[in-house]
Amino acid sequence: MDSLEEKYLKLLAEVDRLKDSKECTNTLNNCNRAYTDCMNLRRELVGNIKDLYAMWLPPKVYSFFSTMKSWIKTGFRKSEYADARLEICKKCDHFNNNLCSLCGCYMQGKTKMAAASCPISKWKAEKLPPKKTKD
Questions:
Q1: DSSP per residue over the chain, as a string?
Q2: CA nearest 94: which of 75, 119, 116?
Q3: Residues 57-79 pLDDT 10s
Q4: pTM here?
Q5: What percent of the chain has pLDDT over 70?
Q6: Where in the chain are the domains?
């Protein structure tokens, strides 16, 4: 029976033999090539998923839901300046049939939301005081 030291030396010799063998070099090259191909396919897949996601959830839908989310967070507070905001929108080139062609929102509703803002900054969200809590 071999001692632990002899087993270790045999193992080192086998590793050196494998390193020098053509089989190991070919296997390593094949692994590197396969890994590179796999990573390229992964990048392509991620790009395709992003494209499909962008088509599925257009920016206008995202804008609508983010506006609604901010309005909900403010406790459905209404704007004091809704009429002035709507007049600004009516003069805009992106206003058509009460809709904004940039954000996709129905502007008679959006201008009434205190937390809402124009996508091209013609009017901003109102600074709201913190909600009062019951003590």
A1: ---HHHHHHHHHHHHHHHHHSHHHHHHHHHHHHHHHHHHHHHHHHHHHHHHHHHHHS-HHHHHHHHHHHHHHHTTSPBPTTHHHHHHHHHTSTTEETTEETTT--BHHHHTTBTT---TTSSS-PPP-PPPP---
A2: 119
A3: 566 777 778 888 888 888 888 88
A4: 0.50
A5: 79
A6: 4-56, 59-110
